[in-house]
Amino acid sequence: METPLLIFNENGIYCQEADVYLDPWHPVDRAIITHGHADHSRYGNKEYITHKNNVPIIKHRLGDILVHGKEYNEKFVVNNVTFSLHPAGHIIGSSQVRVEHKGEVWVFSGDYKLEDDGISTPFEPVKCHTFITECTFGIPPFKWMPQGEVFKDINQWWANNREEGKTSVLFGYSLGKAQRLLKYLDTSIGEIYTHGAIENMTEVLRNQAQFPPTTLITRDTKKKDLLGNIVLAPPSAHGSTWIRKMVPFVTASASGWMAFRGARRRRAIDKGFVLSDHCDWEELLTAIKSTGAEKIIATHGYTEIFSRYLRAQGYDARTEETQFEGEVDEVHIEKKEKEEL
What we know:
single chain; alpha/beta; globular
């Protein structure tokens, strides 16, 4: 039996013909990286290949590495296998990986979303025979509102808090979600303050998108400086000593998981905004249909439910285990929230 073009082994997704891994979870000689989140770009590989806009991100995270930046749609050949990177729309610099050999085409999507967020290159479908897809939110109850409506709600929430003399603390991942939030915050309401993790990553990305000015919170920042303004912080800052100087404050989280009943309560969050950098149910199905693929491999998320649905629609669909984690900071509560649907 002929070996598939891409296989899943103990190190990651492997192209044996090229001796190349895609987003490996253990150190390998040569790795093609879809984007900068920690579950997809890990330390220890001898050589990295990624989109040029992702190069500063992974250098910031991983330090002095050997990395080659590619343009979207730029073909490169490794041991007679042709690769190219294509926009995934997930975060700045995110890519899908197209792999072609002897007329067979596979696409590994990494993480992706269909809505144009205005800061990352929008998702482009790539025709293929086999499509490897995430399904972080791969069940019908997940249905996203247009981001314009979400940001209108976020800015109104901030304005209301300002009227009450309170600091607004908004949680989002330091890479991707934070910059998306920052892009659309209404600075006519007040000033934007940032946690160090978000400030540092945003500085790496400022030459790739237009962001409003921010002020880093330091030991010298006074509580009175923050009152009525908004603070962007990673989810890990919630409940920390760092946040205590902001009293009185109101908290909110921007995440796809906010679609679950009880999500805010379990996180002790005052307000939840449903905003994800991943596809909802309908977007996943739209993306898959647009590839023309007959074979689908579901990797992380609601894999069994999603692949079973795809098989009922006539696809040759199966699942594979990976070490990708979706919305990584909130995976620890995923099981509890699945039970509510």
